[in-house]
Amino acid sequence: MGKSWRKRFILTLRNRYKDAKDKLFEQAMDAEKECATEILLEAKGFADVVVSISGESVDVMVGMGELSDAQRAQIEDIVARKTGVKPENIIISPIVEN
After folding, report:
1. Which of 4, 27, 45, 97 has its CA 20 to 30 A from that of 19?
2. H/E/C letters for each residue in the chain?
3. Residue 52's beta-bridge partner residues?
């Protein structure tokens, strides 16, 4: 009886470790995608960009008062390519400093 309990305990620990490792890897990949997307958007002339990936959606904050339809389309294209998120799940928010 003691051995089967130990085996179950060890398997549980291994599964928890693997789950934690997978979650950390996913977070690191998201952070890398966020950074690469911010750099590319800023290289294209968009100022003060912050990108946040949350599951299957992306929030993009851009330090510009207003964005034209063409600018929004360009941002959506870049974000979709860099993150793999569908354009309908990309939320773009212009930020105006007071």
Report:
1. 4
2. CHHHHHHHHHHHHHHHHHHHHHHHHHHHHHHHHHHHHHHHHHHCCCCCCEEEEECCEEEEEECCCCCCHHHHHHHHHHHHHHHCCCHHHEEEEECCCC
3. 59
- Do 91 and 57 meet the contact criterion of CB atoms below 8 Å apart? yes
CA–CA separation, 47 and 42 (whole Å): 6
| Residue in 80, 15, 81, 41 with CA at minimum distance from that of residue 49 | 41
**What averages of pLDDT result for each successive group of 10 residues across the chain (98 residues)?**
80 90 93 96 94 95 91 96 95 84
